[in-house]
Amino acid sequence: MDEFKIVKEGFIGEIKGIIDKAREGAVRSVNFSRVQMYWNIGRRIFEEEQHGKARAEYGSYLIKRLAERLEPEYGSGFGVRQLNLCRQFFITYPIVHALRSQLNWTQYKLLIAIPNEDKREYYELEAVNNGWNSRELERQIYSGLYERLLISNDKESVLAVARRDRIPENPQEVIKDPMMLEFLGLERRPSYYEKDLESAIIDHLTEFLLEMGKGFSFVARQRRIMLEDDEFFVDLVLYNRLLRCFVVVELKTGKLTHQDLGQLQMYVNYYDRCEKLEEENPTIGILLCSSKNDTVVKMALPADNKTIMASRYELYLPSSVQLADEVGQIRMKLKK
Length: 336
Known about the structure:
Layout: H1 2-49, H2 55-74, H3 80-92, H4 105-112, H5 117-130, H6 134-142, H7 145-152, H8 155-162, E1 179-180, H9 194-203, H10 205-212, E2 216-227, E3 230-240, E4 245-255, H11 258-275, E5 284-291, H12 294-300, E6 308-314, H13 320-335
């Protein structure tokens, strides 16, 4: 009887999988049909307005009159603003075969609002590569993911990874500085304990791994290490399948010190000597802190350091002006 029950449950699970897969495909098909519809509307608007003598004036007149005819019959989704977006959609993506079936209309509206072609291509590729939904794509755009990666990487390497022309070879290519942790939902107050930050991260682990970068998976929390009679606890242990190495993360809510870096180095050494397999790459250590002194970090670590990083975190998303100013300041520091 038990054997029959197991077989039956397995069979039902397979049938459910078939149904779920078919439904997902149907939804994706409907979403892409909508994308193609808006693209074709944009194409016809663009073609029609080219026949007007005063193109700018005629284009506005054309869209206004078209909206007046469409809205009563098809609803508010065909108003002036939406029709203008359709036109811009066609101008931005003039080749229909370049459209990606994995992206919906909401995602394409976010993309066509990005004037920089390289930046737009990056988010388009990463949305497909990582299966971002509309909300995730919007967050990555407004948190300045592209700009943050450009702080320590050149544009060509960032795009090459997004295009899957190359695999990341060092932590700087996948780890951001600063990291945006607004999704933790922590209230605005002067300071937090490390345990509060750690608990919030565990509660939002999926979002945290997404913010960490490509290829991360969770291994352990408060990993206990015994060194003779001394007991230590590593805040977070992750693994990166692209870099093929352990990633040890220590959380620091106060001011970063050289002692913090020394402790992190000890944890990295432990994982390299006691946990790492021969075919795996050296362990990476990340000190995630609320503030840091780049000079202290530089002087506390060896000149050829490639495995210990200090990354600052932000609990609240900055405005676009603040982010641009911050990125500019960091780039100036790196040039010195």
